[in-house]
Amino acid sequence: MKKLALILALLASCSVWAQGDAEAGKAKAATCAACHGADGNSIMAQYPKIAGQHPGYIEKQLKEFKLAMTTGGTQGRNDPVMGGMVMALSEEDMSDLAAYFSSLPISENVTPESSIEVGKQLYNVGDAERGIASCTACHGPRGNGTSLSGFPKISGQNAEYIKLQLEKFRSAQRNNDMNSMMRSVAAKLSDDEITSLSQYVGGLH
After folding, report:
1. pTM reported for the whole predicted model
2. Thinking of the domain 111-201, which architecture would CATH place it in?
3. Which residues on adjacent β-strands are paired with residue 127?
4. Which CATH number is 21-101 given?
């Protein structure tokens, strides 16, 4: 019964997240373009593409950046740049921005040949001996994630950004993942595996 209540609450929250006004979000998105690009496809590899991302996920991250700022970093997601950017945003602003960027198409990336073998193995199968779950379990075979479960779309994402996030999860510098799932996986990955996996995911489409 508790599990059912949790699922219903999650579905309800996601339906609320999806109600932003994309046109209003477009008018509010000017300051986002400097890092994420006017069309949500950042050309600076250390910043994420947010075009085509699930609106609920975008909104959740914006709220957690703000939460980190208002709690002195004890809660939410710590990032000095994004923390400063979101402080003036209302919940309606966040919802509108999420609706706008999610409506835009994400650009494609290409996976280097050298990263395919290791990246594909980890992504599709994981490593049972080391207790590493496959990425497909949450993000799907094409890396599209699932909006209702809160798992983000990662296909086509900037590989350098993915690499930075995996490193942050590995060191627990980033800790806003559900049930520590990303921290658990990343803690078992080597530097080379993180690089290969990041580049493989970036080329999924």
Report:
1. 0.89
2. Orthogonal Bundle (1.10)
3. 132
4. 1.10.760.10
